[in-house]
Amino acid sequence: MAMQPIIWSYHFVNLWFISPPPVVRLADTVVTEIENQILDGALRPGDRIPSERKLAEDFGVSRPSIREAIQKLVAKGLLVTRHGGGTTVTDKLDAAFMDPWQDMVKDHPLLHRDVLEVREMLEGQAAALAALRATDVDMNRLDKAYAALDEAYANKDLDASIAADVAFHQAIAEASHNVLIGHLTASLMRVIHDHVTNNLKHSHTRPAHWEQLRCQHRAIWKAIKANKADKASVAAKEHSTYIRESIENNALDEHRRVSALRRAGSK
């Protein structure tokens, strides 16, 4: 009796060629999670990360796995370990953008307008995306940031207003759920911090300007709360444009004042 040919199943044969799934190390899982926290802003530049023991408890892994993860993040330049100072989140993500531009903006006044125009575009987009993407947690944080800002403006507390202004706009940027917008907004605010501070000091002495800024912040907040992306974008851009024009006018007034004093001194 002739033997029947053996018919191999394609699926059976194919099993020999399937590579086994890659082994995911616990340390790599921890690395990914900490990176996500840095990207999301849960861990900020300069923040000290918890101890190995606490991280091991939080992630449910061994301390050697935590130690390996930290070493990998240090090698990537995302964490910095200092003797006796613990391990902190690097400012590398912000500093790479911020450091050269701060000096350039100081030395080249014509760059002021360029930087402020970028802020207009960035904040308009951030507000629009926040109106569409903000979660309940984001809205709660934004509400608190706005309440602190409005109270500072109502009390005409200059120092509190400066800090609350930065926090409010950063809350919007992070509510956009765009990682780059969040980091770029933080960097830009550092670059133009002196200009914004001087502008608020100038507006602080002019009630109409001060109230205008307060109303603009309220318009941005209400549009985001109402999930109106277009209105939020317009309100944010109008606010940024107003800031830019105020800074430019203040600079022009100062130039005229110095010129007048120089002429008076020459006589």
Determine the N-to-C terminus distance: 127 Å
Sheet with most strands:
2 strands, antiparallel
Overall tally of structural domains: 2
The overall average pLDDT, rounded, is: 82
Total beta strand runs: 2
Q: Biggest sheet, strands in spatial order?
A: 1-2
Say what the CATH topology of the largest domain is: Four Helix Bundle (Hemerythrin (Met), subunit A)
Number of DSSP helical runs:
12
Write a compact overview of the structure shown.
This protein has 267 residues and is mainly alpha-helical. The chain is 75% helix and 3% strand. The radius of gyration is 27 Å and the shape is globular.
Describe the protein:
The protein is 75% helix and 3% strand. It is mainly alpha-helical. The protein has a two-stranded antiparallel ribbon. A hairpin with a 3-residue loop joins strand 1 and strand 2. Helix 2 packs across helix 4, helix 5 packs parallel to helix 9 and helix 8 packs antiparallel against helix 9. The longest helix has 37 residues. About 2% of the residues have low confidence.
Based on the model shown, name its key terms.
267 residues, mainly alpha, Arc Repressor Mutant, subunit A, Four Helix Bundle (Hemerythrin (Met), subunit A), 2 domains, two-stranded antiparallel ribbon
Write the layout of secondary structure elements.
Layout: H1 10-14, H2 26-40, H3 52-59, H4 63-76, E1 79-82, E2 86-89, H5 92-107, H6 111-133, H7 136-154, H8 158-175, H9 179-191, H10 193-204, H11 207-225, H12 229-265
Antiparallel strand pairs: 1-2
Helix pairs in contact: 2-4, 3-4, 5-9, 6-8, 6-9, 6-11, 6-12, 7-8, 7-11, 8-9, 10-12, 11-12
